[in-house]
Amino acid sequence: MSKSPTDDQFESWANESTGAVALHFRQHLVPVEGHGAVFFPPTFADVGYNIDPLADGTQVALVDSVGSQANRMEPLFDTPEWQHLVPRITIAYGDEKKGTDGEMSLLEAGHRLGDAIVRCTELKEEAQRAFQALLRRGNAAHLAKLAPTSLVFGVWDSRDTMAKVPRLVSSVIRAWDVSELKRSAQYNPALDYAALEVFSEEEKQKAEGKSSGPLAERGFVHVPSSRALGGVVARGPIRRDVTVNLVALRRLLADDEAQSQALRRYVLGLALVAATAPQDPFLRQGCLLVPDPDAAAGWEVVERTGQRRSVELHPETLAARAKSAAEAFGVGEGRRLRFDSKLAKADAKKKDKGK
Predict the structure, then answer these.
(1) What is the pTM of this model?
(2) What's residue 68's pLDDT?
């Protein structure tokens, strides 16, 4: 029988160097239409669906990548229930008089504290100092005060200091033993525009049946669409795997040992809140996946020996621990920043250090 972790076990996960190496969650999903139904993975430029063949011929499809999963989890800390756990940093941009104004949370920035948007605000130098502290002394406390989710989901300051923090929470969805389908369609215009003398019959004949050209692109002639991507069918499981890396967590350092331990407890609290929160099942058009009620799902602790044991992570307990750890470490100051076009123009002229 699985048991809820004690205070000592939480402390072991955060700070005991010889403790468990990871927490792992496995969940089987199924399309809302049921087993064997068609669903649509993401498409990638020059690739289409990301489907990899194994040595035995089994095809494995990527349904939601590690990066995509992280981007789905991170905005959790912008909700009323959890926003008190992290500094609330927003960036205003545009011109209100021209109707181009807007505001975004740092939690929406794809590259987190290493994102270009940060270098276009007054936070630029402070973020750089935080990355430098990590590079020179391994000190992650300053990063935690500015953008603690950068420690949870990983960050790479690839355009500036080159500082890199590995992901503590890694989640991915894959489908096993898939077959790819195709679909075809036919677009029919509402009227015969040549008969209405919008263009000539000769122009119509030349344009019909082609997907390119002004008349086809504007919807004035018949256009077929053949052998387009039509989703996949999975004969094997559709599986979501979530891993919390406790080894990487324990490598986080602060100014002294006491603060280092407080930092790790704080980041662990954030990681577990994010990793255990229910996800919105609507990934994209044609991909609405829900938990499979016929397949068991649960968390396991993975020991250094490779042994695994079940553990229950109750949301109420995790919320209390995360709140207590955040208060002990001290949540960084929230602030409202303004996008600076001059900083953006100057930064755009720099060469990318990552290359």
Answers:
(1) 0.89
(2) 96
